[in-house]
Amino acid sequence: MLRNLTFQVFLSAVVAVVLALVYQTVIPDGSGIVDDTIDLLKSAFLSLLKMLIAPMIFFSLIGGIISIGNVVRLRSLGGVTVLYYLTTTGFAILLALVAVFFVHPWTDYPAAMDGVNLDGTVRLLEPSSDSIIAVLGSMASLAFTNPFSALAQLNILGIVTNALLIGIAMVLVLREDSPVIRFVEDANHIIMQILKWVIRLLPAGIFAILFDFTIRLSADTGLGGSFLTQLLEFALLVVLLTLIHGLVFLPLVAWIATGTSPVTLIRRIARPLLVAFSTSSSAATLPVSMRTAEDELGVNNSVSSFVLPLGATMNMDGTALFEAVAAIFLAYLYGIELSSVMMITVFLMAMVASIGAPGMPSASMSGMQMVMLAVGIPLEAIAILLVIERPLDTIRTSVNVEGDLIGCLVVDRYVNGSNQEAA
User: What residue ranges define each of the domains in the chain, with the CATH number in brackets?
Assistant: First the structure.
């Protein structure tokens, strides 16, 4: 168990909070050596994350566009597939944003980090932005900029815009065996390998960030001891919303579109869902999903071989839902005001981030960084999510895979006209 990264991360978080509270009590004025050491670990870990943000977003989005390049060529098949994916992902984000304001389990935790200096934090829009014209002008100036400048300045909207334009142009101009496309694929593999190395440092990084976070939280508000409770409430809300999406909305879509009852559907796709739950990787589940789609659901091979690989890259309902709820939670935690326009920004950025997320464990963190920076949440807040991210990843990956399989049924019904056996 000690070698399990999830256990290490959780243990380091608990130890960090406990030691910080003890440290604050025993040495209220702090110790130079301890404070300097914590600052060094925290700065080093955050620098590693910042180093990966720009290239990870840029190349993963281009790779995602390339992977759905056949949509242009397959027309009806691609059109129905993309429409289904965008609809279900949009509903997941909308469910998250609506529920988070009605449920809001952390209402007794107002602006706990309101005193944190956010002056140096990159943000897409100002919190008070309510003018659509002003917002569109601000977004246009940030979006249409030199790609090298966007990468260097960590301009998230500029990176996303350039990646989308370059990706679409590559699909239209280049052959499938082009060395440029191979370069993008290799770049993604290289970045993912570096990310794996950084993830191995999570326990140390999270310890330093949460130790410092708890010290400030306890000193400013006296709420340091309740931090883990608030985090647990956030996690439970995410689990509840994810289950509603996976057990109610998606089966309902399958029932209405194909006539397959929810009970029959879950029974037939149980195996890939269990594999997804255990691996936290929709890419690793892909072979099992393809076999299930053809053998258990009766989907045509030409449909499953297109829809499922595309879904492993583009269809991330659970990931988008998690990112939307997390953005609101962290903004509330740091006392960042989110206007209605900023909420629309969260919706759009969560959708874009989920499209480019690779189908591997903890891959949502790359997209989460995009959403956080877009609304001005400090990057160090990602450590708060990483404490409970891996357990939640198992559930949302299962929902992601479920959405892919239901997508096969829907697309097969409306493109090939195959009528699934209703139950």
Answer: 5-416 (1.10.3860)
